[in-house]
Records
---
Amino acid sequence: MNDKKPASGITPPGKSSDWAALGADVLRLPDRKLLQIYRLLEQVGDKPEVSGAFEAMRPRLTTLRPPRRPALSRLFFLPAEDMLDDAEHYSRRLNRICRSTLSPCWQAVKDHIPAALQQEVYREVSHVDYRDGAAIAVLCEPLWQAGVEALARVITDCQNNLKYKISLFGRDDDVQRQLDTLRQILSVAVRIEKLKAALPPRPILDLAESHVEIIRATLIDLGKEDAALTQPLLLVLASRMQRPGELLRMLSEVRLGGTVAEKENLTREMSGYVVGNLLRQTGDFDRENPLIHGDPASLAAAAERLTDGLNSVNDTVQGLKDKEISAKVKNARAEIGQFVLKNICADVDKGLTEALFGHGGALPSNEDVKKAEQFALALRRSSKLAGPLGIQREVTAKINEARQHVISNTLATLRDTPRNRDGSMNADAQRQMFNGLRMVEILAGSDEAERLFREWSAQYR
Amino acid sequence: MTDQGDSGRTRKMMEDFAPATFEERGVTVPFTTPLLSQARLRRDQNERFEFLLPNFTAGKGTYVLPWKGLPSVMTLTLHDRLLFEEIEQLETHSPEQIRSCALSVQATGVCGPDAATRASELRDQDSQYLVLTQFILVTELLKLVNISAADLLRPGMTADDSKRVARQALAKVASMVDIPPDDMTMRVDQLGEAVAPVGLPQAPKSGRLRTLSDRLHAFAQGTQHFADTDPSEAAMLGTYVSTVANHTLTLARQRIGRLDAACRDARQIINDAPKLHKAIQEYVARISWLLDGWEFLIAMWESVRDEPSATKQTTITDISRLLPMIPKEEISHATENLDLDAIQRMQKKWVRVNQDWRTGVLDMDAVMRLESLKAAMG
């Protein structure tokens, strides 16, 4: 399509109200057409008047979730996105970066990056799929390279000019450490982004042989260049893994170049980071944190991730021979255990029963059955964690309770639902029987579900 | 067939891996136990059921196990236990019969509400399509006595009027070969049932297997595009998958073409219905066997359409291990040159084993992923 011509059917509006009206008109179109127009509007760029059109389209876009065209600042910080924490969850001395640092940081560095380069990168990126990590890595390389130098200048300016520093970041000296972490990450940004594109999405659960090979090759290449360059890459990678302990194990097996002392130092620092980062995330479980008020299955999945992570660093923690860290890890497990009991197990049986049977004798909708499944899955996940967290007795008791509720309610439904003329179970009763069996299968396993199926089928055939 | 590669080692070619016949390849059963996913069912020399398990060894070959041995090796979902009971009741085990069995078990809700709803929709679509196919056959017959579909739907005619005219016209057709009108209706019913899975070419909507062959075409293009653009070694697996898909597609389209040609002349229905019925059954069965197993793979690939390339790489590996191999009797030159030895090495390298079968505990997340694919299948 010729860029100079307007898209067919769209007359370019002038005022921002016209753009908003256009956005509202577009809502009447089918999904495919709406997305085409969304992409065309994106090419108009970051103009304030166009935001009205996006605002009007937002409810549909929330459902369709088209890939977003990232702002240049977002592209700049992309390699460090796994290291970012919100202000209320940010922990110092962990090589993490606080999100509130990003805005003033961008204000400062963009003045040191040539405007032509910024425009060029932004234009190039608009021609590729934003989800294509490898392509983004290649196109943004000049931006990140310029960013390393720009950040070094900002750090120096902050050191030499207190007023400048305070006006941008306030008085906290920790910001300079954050800027330095960011600078280190940007210095290996292309390798980080290429690696991210080649590995499974976060949280990385399992690595294939090919993935291990890619990580090893990248570490060895970087190590040959300068062993210190491996650290920022490892920090990002460890933050993306569900079992970061596996990365530490891999690190101990790879020859990175540099001296033995350097390697030992790197391993110690990475172990400290991995354990510290897991403890930080566990700490969030204990606070009033709006992020963790999700459905029980998501909460259980989060608890599972952390427990899995803690289990993966067992060897590392023992190797550190640090009584304080060992005690912290032990406490972290206890905290997760309490969290699971308090937030996941407490009322899950009631939620499950309500979703499946709380409809005045009518069949639950598909959505209700899925909700009940989520409750049952949360309990099942909790039972997997119960051993390492020392809450086996409580979780087993809760599963039994939930199972009993499902069985007694299903039996009541089978008893109360009228039979077919030939005495067989009617379609609704049969469906409710299978709904109940499904929950029992999730909670107590397929053998128990099959036993009940035979029993109920014989009794209510 | 083997040949010597540059290095002197023996290269495994397509024929080394291919089963001799479709029966030897086995029919795909849509189990939800992750290790049984896309297992193929066949009978052994003693006519007992055995399963070929492509997922069991994570890319190191295909295990063959008798059904009785399975529960001692892995925990099976309730869905799979009930499905197998249904399968045991069948006298023959064609892809169409297995599909019908699977849909009836799926419709109970034993593998989740979405899969149940989808099964009910598909069964409804099948019966509606059967009615449509039979209607088209009737209109083709009526043309022989100069009655068109429009004659049945003239302004002012009631539904009963239309039925009466159609009955009279069919009686006229039946009288041409001196058979009772009811026999003619029965012929139409039987032919309709036989051809409905593929559908007639003149139908306003394609039949299920004809649609599947179109989706296979899009799948072959999609996986080839992946092979052309992916920078990793998994691109090689994309080429392999696309080649086998294209080969299958060519064969399926040939059969569909022959079926369409066989159905073209409505006079055969009155002159030699048994011969036509047999020919249609054979063509449809062949098409069904050729496309058996592909629907699940297409759903797998479509489910990662918007995912990052790493997810696509893993998925193409999984798909490559589950590919329905074309039997030797059907193999053509199109796939002869694939170095399957290299492909196997690549598969092992890219596989991620995330089910620990040794614990005997079902991975419910993996089970539910399979169930969601069932809910997405056409």
---
Amino acid sequence: MAIDTTALGPSRHAENSASIVQKGIARRYAAERRFRLYGMFAILFGIAFLVFLFGSIVSNGYTAFVQTSFKLDVPLDSEVVDPAGTRAVSDLRNADYTLLARKSLASLLGADTSSRPQMREVGALLSRDVDVEIRNAVLADPSLIGKTLSLWVLASGRVDSLMKGQLDRELPAAVRKVSDQQLGWLDKAEAAGFLAKRFNTGLFTAGASSNPETAGIGVAMVGSLFMMLIVLILSVPLGVAAAIYLEEFATKNLLTDIIEVNINNLAAVPSIVFGLLGLAIFINFAGLPRSASLVGGLVLTLMTLPTIIIATRAALKAVPPSIREAAYGVGASKMQTIMHHVLPLAIPGILTGTIVGLAQALGETAPLLMIGMVAFVVEYPTTPLEPATALPVQIYMWATSAERGFVERTSGAALILVAVLICMNLIAVILRRKFERRW
Amino acid sequence: MSTSVIVLGLLIAGIVAFFIGSWRASASTRTSKTRPHSRPGYHGGYLAIWTALPALLVTLAWGGAEFSIVRALVGADLPQNVRDLSDAEQSLVTSRISSVARGLPRLSAEELKLVERARYGFAPLADAQRVLQERGVVLGSAPEPYVITAAYDQARYTNISRWLATGLAAALAALGFGYAFSRINPNLRARNAVERVILGSFIVASMVAILTTAGIVLSMLFEAIHFFRYVPPFDYLFGTVWDPRFSAAGQAGSEGQFGLVPLLWGTLFISAVAMFVAVPVGLLSAIYMSEYASRTVRTVAKPLLEILAGIPTIVYGLFALITFGPFVRDAGGTIGLDISATSVLTAGVVMGVMIIPFVSSLSDDIINAVPQSLRDGSYGLGATQSETIKRVVFPAALPGIVGAILLAVSRAIGETMIVVLAAGIAANLTINPFEPVTTITVKIVSQLTGDLEFNSPQTLVAFALGLTLFIITLGLNIYALYVVRKYREQYE
């Protein structure tokens, strides 16, 4: 059996490399599977973290939407409210409504109204701001004096945490700071139906307060709203105008190059630097008031501008040349072509970019800390020049506050902020889907 | 009239002029035989621009200059001992004068008489304070007679200036209107003129970006130079101790130490941890999304990961503070590690998660830009999919990915809220990731919140830190762009 080695050579060689490939193939397929697994793991990691984050905020924050209250029938004794009988506003303002509320609660609980320690314990169940609600009702309608006012008043923060199960009932009384007597009263009140957890409207309407139970984000939301309006009014015209110039008119020269590099860099400048700019230029140099939403709006405008410019340029670029050529063909000038034909077709893209930019601005905190919006604002600001605070800043202030009762409010406010932002981004996505045109 | 009222008036005048102009143009078209050059609306715009624009510009310039001119005039009349005061005290006096001047027009005749008597010593100054207080002017102490005098002057000068501004604006508007109205005829090239003005406004708008950058650089530089008068740049850049001594601020010999090194170290350390999380996860998820994932997985997972990008940083910070920090501490406790709740690890991991979508969306674009022919060639040689990705796609996309990572680093360095809430405030030079450190951004926030006195190194250092931050991030961004441009493979 003569073997033709010349014929066999390559085939043996082929057999050899094929077997090498065969040998390695299991290992290579295993590597392939591993690589796929890494990718899957990476995505799962991201999603797991998202779930963890949302789970943490929701589980910490959902209780902020209800608040424990007592239903009281407060007899507005004219002896206490208006001893002089003049109905003078200053008298009505200074009356001891807390006493009335305490007495009313004490009688409901069957406590001894003549015993001081008992009255103190009854008083500790009520919010420290309980007088405000009654006072406002009386000031709004002085004819109530002498009658019995029936209303829900807030319980103290400690009672609230107890009712929500955040404070362990089994703890010794000295630690939980609610006496056994108070605990008995609370159980009785709950059974009798004049102690209940009700929807927390105060969270949405109230301003800053040192008592957690009466603190809310209403004032902060107004501040945020002012700033968003200023951002919208200023950044959209400026951003669109700048984008039109850069995309449609600018000839390539040093100046436009500088502008372009500039805009790209501004988009990547840390937000806190914009805050320093606002502090140095708007407040120290131009003399605008600190903590004003005008300054905040201006700073956020500067931050949002690059986003809007970049989005508008992309939208303008997406309009096909045929549109322009048709307009030129019927004798339109360049400006007419852009303003009458190109810009209207780019509006959906501009709108999407604007909403995304506004959402970024709404969630921004750091620059607002620099311009003094870390303020304890109780009253609603009526003009952009008045001291205001913003929703994310309010979250920051609550998060750093030492008082335990603010934890659920912090998470509740964060939940609201995230919900608003997700809604804005959803609207942007829907708009893009709806108006997206393929040319 | 105040500036805003004048501006409003001019805008209304402009709108009226627009309608007059269009009406006038269409009327003259009807009577003349020549075909008009521009449509009536452009004539309206022409007239409106001539009416409102020059007057508006002058009014705004006037409004900007008025305050400082009036202040200079008032300041010149102050008694010598007041003018000898330090800058800070003078600005206090000026703000007192301004608030009294704002209050004066609100007083009734009787109250005004009282203030007047107090000014010349016929009534107690406390009475003047009380009267002003009732009208919403809150003064820390009773106004000195010279404050009242100056306030009267200021009110008078402001009044004069307002009248002058109103008159000037009205005159300019009338002149502009007259000139433009007389020029309206069918041959007027109104469209060209209007378009030039619009184009000019576009150019001005695009300058805002430059002005912003210039504003950032100049304001930081100015205040930082101020700071370097107290602290030598060398001590700032290479000092290893950060101890600003807030409590002793202002006292002689208690300057404090402002060493950048511990802050820079903290910043870089946390950013490194963040990158350690964000780069592998972001890259791998981008690769999986673009190369492996089925359509359904992509439509579900991609928006979910993008939600991570939409969550504001304060919420991440809150999460790190109330959940993740304690979680890490407890987890460390069970395996016998002593981890503090605010630590490099906590802040770094949470920041890394925040940056994942940033890395993955940028890498996604870059990976998709690698041409299919490269992949096909690799498959043709018998490579598996992962080998193709690792040996062909990844090297081709590398410059872009490096650019993306550099941009992510610059974002991590400038991130504020997460580190403010989760990294700690003690300036530590440590290599233990379980200990708290502090960063540049944290110190900017802590030096500038609270009551400010603007001429102490304690607050001015924030601007030096801001400048440092700006330079670092700017350098990273420019270098990222350079890397991308230089190493980009040119396909096609």
